[in-house]
Amino acid sequence: MVPLKKKFQDLREKIQTQSFQENRGLSNEVGYYIFDYDPEKELYVRGEIGDIIRQEKAAPTGVTIQVFNLFTIMLTIVDQFGYREAFIDLEKSNGITQVIDWMNNIMEMNEERNLVVQYISDHLNKDGPTIVFITGVGQVYPIIRAHKVLNTMTQVIDQIPVMMFYPGNYNSVRLQAFGELQEDNYYRAFHFE
Fold first, then answer.
1. How far apart (Å, rounded) are the C-alpha atoms in residues 58 and 55?
2. For residue 147, what are the CA distances in angstroms to 32, 49, 78, 89?
3. What Rg value do the Cα atoms of the chain yield, rounded?
4. Residue 172 backbone zone (phi > 0: left; psi -120 to 50: alpha; other: beta)
5. Burial bucket for residue 147 (CB in 10 Å: 0-12, 13-18, 19+)
6. Which among 12, 70, 93, 96 has the fewest CB atoms less than 10 Å away?
7. pLDDT tens digits for 7-29?
8. Burial of 163 (0-12, 13-18, 19+ CB in 10 A)
9. What share of the chain is helix, strand, coil (3-state, %, to 5)?
């Protein structure tokens, strides 16, 4: 695996290029990338993402980087329904498996336009070039799975480059959360190395 510091240097360079910003040179594939990393480096990754955002604001490049944290989105949706306390009680009484089932039903995670993807779509910058960063994958696991977000998001967001920061491994075929837990296959994202 490429050292994390080097991956972030490469990411900073890549997001500055017009070809990346415009999804060019991808052989008609959607511009989805998975930036995998050792889960133990989570705080470092958060810091680097924050630095990229601060640099982008300090020296505007003509592109907007929007960060969507899956945990924040999940809580926003749950709070809109008024279910936060109910989910806390449900986990205490029935365990996490019941919470996962109910949460996936409420957020329509098996639907093409689930509420997570709809939230991202509704809040996208429409006023110029945009790059989307998806964070919080580890914070919502196992309630929301990365492959479900990516699989459904490609149906809605296909012209904007998307970089998902993934605590685990991705080998261009399979996602492995935290380097140990297998998720379903996901074939459409490029492995950012």
1. 5
2. 12, 21, 21, 28
3. 17
4. left
5. middle
6. 93
7. 999 999 989 888 888 877 555 56
8. buried
9. 45, 20, 35
